[in-house]
Design brief:
86% helix, mainly alpha
Length: 270
């Protein structure tokens, strides 16, 4: 009979064996992302894609996502104003609701919610589109013709999402602030002039830049994860479905986890 130390060692070895495939899969995915990023940057610098392709992606990613980003920001701003106003009223400070609401939206809620919505809509769409092309051998046909899938498929989508996510974040912040203004004037009896002046007094340029900086990183995470998963699809329609689900989950987790470290980073900057 093995001793207590032997049993503990066997259990630890068993856990290590169970974890090793997951660690290897994670390392493989990170390696694919690093290589795809390198290839995309190299292609974008040396042989940028046709502008018409980029413009089409700007429409697909930006314009068609405006409604969901705006609706999410509007409801968030209204709920924040209502909740904060009810809480601050206990201390006689409900007139300052715009300061807290504005900083919360611009620094955190606006970038995160916009990125999560686009991760679900745009990230899943990119993966499904590229995955369908992969399983139907259209990507192999591009390679056979001497064309670069990275140049024609990956770079336009990365450029478009890196441009449109910060733009949609700014629009979402404005819509959320306007939603808070509507609640402040109708429910909290705060005048519009005081709401705006208090917001401008309490917000600094660092708040805006912090939110925009996060949105750029979130955009990169969504785009590169979606493209990598789409290009790696195998197994027909079932593989496309699994890759699409994986993109939404991975992008959402990346956004939520990286937000903490980005917040610490921006707080450390002068």
């Amino acid at each position: 009979m093995p001793g207590a130390e032997g049993v503990v060692a066997e259990r630890a070895a068993g856990r290590a064996l169970r974890l090793s495939p997951r660690l290897l899969a994670l390392a493989d995915a990170l390696g694919d992302i690093a290589l795809l990023t390198r290839d995309a940057v190299r292609v974008a610098v040396r042989r940028p894609p046709a502008w018409r392709t980029v413009v089409d992606q700007l429409e697909q990613i930006g314009w068609r996502s405006l409604s969901i980003a705006g609706l999410t920001a509007l409801s968030t701003g209204m709920v924040l104003a209502l909740q904060l106003g009810s809480f601050l009223e206990r201390f006689g400070a409900k007139m300052f609701v715009s300061r807290i609401l504005g900083v919360s939206l611009v620094r955190e809620m606006g970038p995160i919610l916009t990125a999560l919505m686009l991760g679900g809509r745009v990230g899943a769409g990119i993966t499904a589109e590229l995955g369908t092309m992969a399983v139907t051998e259209q990507i192999d046909a591009l390679r056979a013709l001497g064309a670069s899938p990275v140049r024609h498929l990956v770079v336009p989508r990365l450029v478009a999402i890196l441009v449109m996510v910060p733009v949609l974040t700014v629009i979402a912040n404005l819509i959320g602030i306007l939603g808070g203004l509507a609640i402040a004037t109708s429910e909290l009896q705060v005048t519009a002039d005081f709401y705006v002046n208090s917001l401008l007094y309490g917000m600094v340029i660092d708040d805006v830049l912090s939110g925009l900086g996060k949105s750029v990183f979130f955009a990169y995470a969504i785009g590169i994860i979606a493209c990598r998963n789409g290009l790696a699809v195998t197994g027909g329609a079932d593989g496309v479905g699994r890759a699409t689900t994986a993109t939404v989950v991975q992008a959402s987790i990346t956004i939520l986890v990286s937000d903490f470290f980005l917040t610490k980073l921006f707080m450390m900057l002068p």
